[in-house]
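Hello forum,

I keep getting stuck at the same step: I have a sequence, I want structure tokens, and every attempt I make locally crashes halfway through. Rather than fight my setup again tonight, could one of you with a working pipeline run this one for me? It's a single chain of 263 residues.
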Amino acid sequence: MTSSALVKDYMTKEVITVTPNTPNEEVIKLMKATGHDGFPVKTDGKVIGMVTAFDLLLKEWVPHVEGIMSRDVVVSDQEMSINDAARVMFRMGISRLPVVDKEENLVGILTNTDIVRSHIERSTPMKVNYFKKTLEQLYNIKTKIVRMKVPIEKLRPTQDKIYADELQGRTYELKRGLAEPTIVVKVGNRFVLVDGHHRTVAARKLGYKEIDSYVIRIDEDMKLGLEKTADKNGIFSFNDIEIIDDAQHPLIAITGPLREIKK
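Reply #2:
Ran it on my machine without issues. Output:
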């Protein structure tokens, strides 16, 4: 996994802010409308505090933000590595990090969700490279990797079943921009889906037309073993995939009992 990713690569640039004079009632309405549980407090482009749901719940009620906001705010430089930012957030026990430029103007915000997304996106290339090498060794060929949006209806699935609980999890991730890219092989004029069946089915159900993918390109037209197995199992479209709802995904089945033990 690469460690060169920077805060500016993953931060949210459109930041919702409030001012010291914003009524706290308005902050509550803003939280309900956006789903965010905290906002930077800004004056003249500078961050001067943070107001969170904890401030509203635990501090004595006052009418305006300036009476409850936290003024001891930790900020990040946008050139900071994402790993260092994650360490700061973990050690400080904070879930969001305002990002400032050299003039200390607010330019973004980094949240726990952004950290998780960065981890997911950076771990995928390892799987892609592994599969690329496997293909090259298996078929004695050279391949190229590109990252692109692939039309979902052009994808050829190769998996005959998926799990309903995992599908629900992938839907949750997609709605929050957390889903990792799928892995696809482009051979001839075909896009063969290798990894990401739950994600793709979830994306179809959400009405997405394209899905972010790592595409391994093979110049020579050949029939892959994956395709032959899919042919044999009668998997030609996403309508041929069975969604299993009476059994748990193996990963969920493993983690479930561990959760019960902790109780």
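Confidence is low (pLDDT under 50) at residues 254-263. If your local run keeps crashing, start a new thread with the error log.
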